[in-house]
Amino acid sequence: MGTSEDKSIFSSYVKKEGLYDEVFDENGGVKSGYQKLLDLYGTRSIDDYVSLNNKAKSSFFNQGITFQVYGNKKSQEKIFPFDLFPRIITSEEWEIIEKGAIQRNIALNHFLWDVYHDKKIVKDKVVPIELLSSSPNYLHQMMNVDPPNKIYNHISGTDIIKHSDGNYYVLEDNIRCPSGVSYVICNRTALKRALFGVFNHYKTHSVTDYAENLLHLLETAKPHGVDSPVTVVITPGMFNSAYYEHSYLAKAMGVELVEGRDLFVENDFVYMKTTQGPVRVDVVYRRIDDLFLDPMEFNPDSTLGVPGIFAAYRKGNVTLANAPGTGVADDKAIYTYMPDIIKYYLNEEPILKNVHTYHCSRPKELQYVLDNIKDLVIKPVDEAGGYGISIGNRLTKDEIERVKSEVKANPRKYVAQPIMSLSVHPTYIDQKESFEQRHVDLRTFTVLGKDEQFVLKGGLTRVALKEGNLIVNSSQGGGSKDTWVLKQ
Amino acid sequence: MLYEYEIDYDTRNSYEKGLNEAFWQFLIIPEENDTQELTYWHFENDLDENNSVSENGLGFKTVQVRSKKVLDHIKFNAHFKLTKKEVNPFDFDLPLDIDEERKLVDSLDFRVDYEPYLRNTRFTQLLEEHKSIYAFDSKKSIFENLTDLNHWTYDHLYFKTGVTDVNTNLDEIIENRHGVCQDFTHLFCAIAKHHGVPARYVSGYLHQGHGFFGDSQMHAWAEAFVPNVGWVGFDPTNNVLANQNHIKVCHGKDYTDCAPLKGVVYTLGENETEYSVSVKAAQQQ
């Protein structure tokens, strides 16, 4: 491993039994793709690394790439911790991930069309009706509405892990307003600034083409009769945790970033207020949840949305991406039916595996969950960002009882999965001034357009920075790594 | 027989601290259907702003008014002329086989097709202890059960204004046993749905002069789905089936889908809403 100096950067790296290390194999050898990188990093001392890491961090602060954490009384602005040691995905592995992500998201789109039209999958007893009717995201207002090009989930974030068995599994499908793509691009920029030389030795796919592909595919869904559409990004505002990303994407696509109050609706058309007068808006990449989108139709107290925008959408005068009502498929209970959903609509075997899931709403499975809670992860079906997750083997006795009674009181609200051993990746730990194994996952970004799809070749590798921790969400103290997809 | 109606809807909303931007949406236009035909409509507001006709999420016509002026009130008037056919709510054959009818209602296809109107909603959610408050008679047809439920609701609640408001939940209404047309309707819908019969909230106008309850404001009643017949209107506030005196505007899962006025106003102070409705039978042919 690089030089034999005591202070070489991997000199004190410890490989724990039973963990799947993405860089080193069981015999201490280096896995394909990483040798060159280790040679390059190995020529540096840990002190060099520390100073480079600090430089990269300050560049994040200086660029204002921060996020907010909810739940505390005071919300805090933090930088997303970044690690300079990248993750490498070979072209062969990437092909599986990309095909699998497209397959899943196309199947989800079929599912959404079906549950808002003929509901065949329910009548054929593949998915129970109760799962839909109990979901606040199953919008009555979207029944028999035909979104442009029949696309609902224009933008999806598929969370994938590599299990200790070496296979990729999907953990979650995020199709409401998935965020994180801006970090992918910023991570690449930061790594290039700090360690430009390493890129000369690898043929890595670019990630900076995301915005142009996003804009192009969004505009394939422009309303009828519009030649060159006006697209905007709508944000809930600067207090939203992903505000940096909203502004980044608008800037990178070359479109306006707006808030609800910057738009208005007249005669079922949407206009943007500008210094030169109203400008008609045709495509809205909305980063506002359904229930806040239009106070005339959904939450009447919402001041984030645009009154009347849903009526304009229903008439086909403006495109909203993702379509309202898409959230019904972004539900951890629906997730468990994904293998069936893929087979039902595409008549294909799922390319990416699902983690086995127990539905607490089914009495037998509920009993299993209560009896085996120590070996399971309990997740609320409708929370995002890693909130409300309990990991059985980390709970105290009291906590176990509390979780059990909560699950018993609200079985529909919870699903459980075996504790998956996420793969680990060497990660620089500030406090220890050395590299240690940390669990990682991968959020991939898929965009569906008219007859074409785009998956960003790369993705957000999220790192659980606390030792042994499995929850990688940024709101739970996770960090991230640049992710390289190698060209063939 | 045809009935001709003239309907006026007047409202005045005033805002203590004033506004400089607002958006209002009125859900007050009578629906066009087999028994109703709108022959004239006219909208007016005193802000000199456009009255634009749009549609809500369930496809019912709305009127939208948007203003960017500094103002402290809005006055809005809608005037309609409408012809309504005589409605005989009993004009159909009762099912021959009550078991068959029940089987249909319990079938998966039926429950999927009518899912939105079988859903629990905020205002039609029965608490566990209230689920047995009214039982259906398995020897009677669904229509007969619904007619009985209509009587029962009328008997069970006392019509009283000012004790409930648009935020009152069903459990309070059941406990206190009084309310207005909207509360009667929610209770009827909740029980029908609990027994597997799709039910929906209807908002509309009631022809005045018959001594009916709820006739100087917008009225609410229910529609329930009777197999092989279709949606039938029940007015539990007045213990009748909906007929030519009931002029429908829209339906929805509960009041939330049917609020006659929704608005977004940016103001800190109090606001006050007044409105009145008048329904006149112009002439009868």
TrEMBL record, chain A:
Residues 86-464 form the Circularly permuted ATP-grasp type domain. PANTHER family: BLR5612 PROTEIN, SLL1039 PROTEIN. This is Circularly permuted type 2 ATP-grasp protein.
TrEMBL record, chain B:
Residues 173-238 form the Transglutaminase-like domain. It comes from Flagellimonas profundi. PANTHER family: BLR5614 PROTEIN-RELATED (PTHR33490), SLL1049 PROTEIN (PTHR33490:SF6). Gene3D superfamilies: 3.10.620.30. It holds the Pfam family Transglut_core. This is Transglutaminase family protein. InterPro entries: Papain-like_cys_pep_sf, Transglutaminase-like. The lineage of its organism: Bacteria, Pseudomonadati, Bacteroidota, Flavobacteriia, Flavobacteriales.
